[in-house]
């Protein structure tokens, strides 16, 4: 069966004052998938049917993205609000806990959620987004600042949106096509699907507003996170042009039960470029017994 013929269902839920769209498939314990920039639920198309064999998989459009509601206020895209969205989603679906999986911005939300509501997670899986303390420590190095130039550009009004939508959203397509190591990862149809999602009214500003909330609440604070007690797997595509692999080193100091899997010859778009290997590593982690206290 083609991944695009999978029997997932499109639904909506109101949580934390916003209407969120999500795609779901399967029955059982809850697995929530959080995408990154400039994606939407579609970035999990290879994981949804795979893990629906054992879970109720829910791949949500984060607020501001694709079919989800797009509040106009800049403050609506603070990390605190994004974490509350996930809390309300889990409870609204009738669960007390879930396996939480996040990539890129979804990974940042997942890390923050794990520290805020650890009792609501059975396991945590983060793809290509460093632990928040490691990110803060490594962000201000020359190498990472060069990689993160776009974060500073995104602080400007208007110009980032104009840049992203120019020439039929050319930059959106290039972010996927040019960053991928395997150039067969994204078809033109895939790129058009991402462009169409970004073209929805209000979506570009909402997507950029995530970055506009990074200062000063996240990257300029020096608070060090404590020891996380949620069993955690990190999966890292080694050829990430946006985030240096060195940001992962030492993460075990902050997570009691921690595993990391590096995938060589793979870009930031790890779960789309190497889905079979990502799925394998996820299954191995999910089926393993957690470390006893």
UniProtKB/TrEMBL annotation:
<dbReference type="InterPro" id="IPR000073">
    <property type="entry name" value="AB_hydrolase_1"/>
</dbReference>
<dbReference type="InterPro" id="IPR029058">
    <property type="entry name" value="AB_hydrolase_fold"/>
</dbReference>
<dbReference type="InterPro" id="IPR000639">
    <property type="entry name" value="Epox_hydrolase-like"/>
</dbReference>
<protein>
    <recommendedName>
        <fullName>AB hydrolase-1 domain-containing protein</fullName>
    </recommendedName>
</protein>
<dbReference type="Pfam" id="PF00561">
    <property type="entry name" value="Abhydrolase_1"/>
</dbReference>
<keyword id="KW-0378">Hydrolase</keyword>
<dbReference type="GO" id="GO:0016787">
    <property type="term" value="F:hydrolase activity"/>
</dbReference>
<feature type="domain" description="AB hydrolase-1">
    <location>
        <begin position="29"/>
        <end position="274"/>
    </location>
</feature>
């Amino acid at each position: 069966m083609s991944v695009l013929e999978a029997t997932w269902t499109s639904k909506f839920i109101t949580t934390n004052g916003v209407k969120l769209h999500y795609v779901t498939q399967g029955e059982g314990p809850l697995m929530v998938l959080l995408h990154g920039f400039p994606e939407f639920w579609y970035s999990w198309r290879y994981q949804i049917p795979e893990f629906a064999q054992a879970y109720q998989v829910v791949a949500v459009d984060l607020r501001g993205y694709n079919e989800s509601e797009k509040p106009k206020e800049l403050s609506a895209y603070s990390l605190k609000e994004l974490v509350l969205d996930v809390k309300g989603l889990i409870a609204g679906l009738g669960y007390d806990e879930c396996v939480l999986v996040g990539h890129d911005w979804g990974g940042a939300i997942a890390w923050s959620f794990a520290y805020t509501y650890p009792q609501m997670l059975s396991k945590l899986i983060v793809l290509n987004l460093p632990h928040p303390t490691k990110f803060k420590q490594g962000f201000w190095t020359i190498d990472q600042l060069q990689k993160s130039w776009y974060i500073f550009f995104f602080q400007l009004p208007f110009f980032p949106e104009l840049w992203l939508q120019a020439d039929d959203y050319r930059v959106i397509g290039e972010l996927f096509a040019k960053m991928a190591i395997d150039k067969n990862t994204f078809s033109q149809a895939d790129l058009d699907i991402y462009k169409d999602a970004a073209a929805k009214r209000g979506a570009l500003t909402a997507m950029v507003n995530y970055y506009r909330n990074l200062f000063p609440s996240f990257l300029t604070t020096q608070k060090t996170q404590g020891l996380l007690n949620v069993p955690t797997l990190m999966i890292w595509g080694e050829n990430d042009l946006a985030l240096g692999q060195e940001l992962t080193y030492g993460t075990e100091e902050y997570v009691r039960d921690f595993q990391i899997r590096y995938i060589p010859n793979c870009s930031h778009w790890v779960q789309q470029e190497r889905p079979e290997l990502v799925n394998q590593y996820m299954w191995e982690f999910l089926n393993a017994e957690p470390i006893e206290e």
